[in-house]
Amino acid sequence: METQEKQVLTASIDWLEFTVMDITVEKALTEILQLPVTEFSPLNKGRFGYHKQLKWVGGNIFVLYNDLSETTENKPETADRMGVHMMLSGAGCRQYEARQPLKKLLLFLTILDERVNFTRIDLAIDDRSDQLINFSRVHDAAINRLFTSRWSKWDELNSRRSATGEYLGRTMYFGSQASDIFCRIYDKTLERKANSEETTGLPEHWTRLEVIYKKDRAKQLVYHIVDRHVPVGTAIRGTLNQYIRFIKTPPNPDQNKSRWPTAEWWIQLLDGVGKLQLTIEKEQKSIDDMKDWLERQIAPTIAAVLTANEGDLSWLHEIIGKGAQRLSQRHRDAIAQYLLKK
């Protein structure tokens, strides 16, 4: 999980959810997640329309799929079109990172390209001392309309203890939760206290800011991180810079808040980062990019199989032959560009 330090701030990927088409569940585990099949246990039922569900014994990673051998005669194609769905929760991202770099997983998903549908990616900034992202300060600014935003609405959700009235949870949402991108800010200390009796070492003041990216916005985010090498912290701050700005009242305010000065704490948080465009066309991978990926990711596996087969290449030729029948337009374009340069 990539992090970027900014005073007391840390930035991270806090949710990753996607579907891969035209793949078996075994290959999804071993080739995409690169985790042994033996480390996954079946759960009693599936969800999201899938009949089967596996959970990683090492943490909160869930894999949903349909067993095509068990589908009814009149619905096998429906099950096949659903692909294999993988979900890494916030804790799952951190647990997975202990075994495999998340960026390596994202790189592999960009290589698969049109076979991957991204459902959701969350980026988070944690302020464990409330120096910059202070929940009450953000809330007061929202109440007093001291912000400008491309998001047309904001909501708040609070829960309190009945007996004392003390807060059990405080959350703000900028943008609609039904949209493809929105921001969530909440009191992480309260959330941890509500979900666990263990509070040892828990910061007294801890606010988390998250941006949730869905569907095409999530896919564009991944290409920024992988192709353009944008750090996670820069990506989330660039998104915030594109969608919202907290301001302060000038000495002689006019009606146009776009001319009001930016709040100092917001300037410090963004730290001069530019706006992150999430509607750009992704960079097309060249043949050289594909060769580089093969060398870094697949070469050891090919060498192992080749050694075990005592140099026999027939199996490799068979795989290449099958792959040639599945070339996409993206692959054909890359081949044409490569041949033009020769």
UniProtKB/TrEMBL annotation:
Superkingdom of origin: Bacteria
Assigned keywords, A-Z: Initiation factor, Protein biosynthesis
InterPro entries: REP-like_C, Rol_Rep_N
An example molecular function term from Gene Ontology annotations: translation initiation factor activity
Location of the Rolling Circle replication initiation protein N-terminal domain: 11-98
Domain Replication initiation protein-like C-terminal: 116-320
Protein name: Replication initiation factor domain-containing protein
Taxonomic source organism: Candidatus Limosilactobacillus merdigallinarum
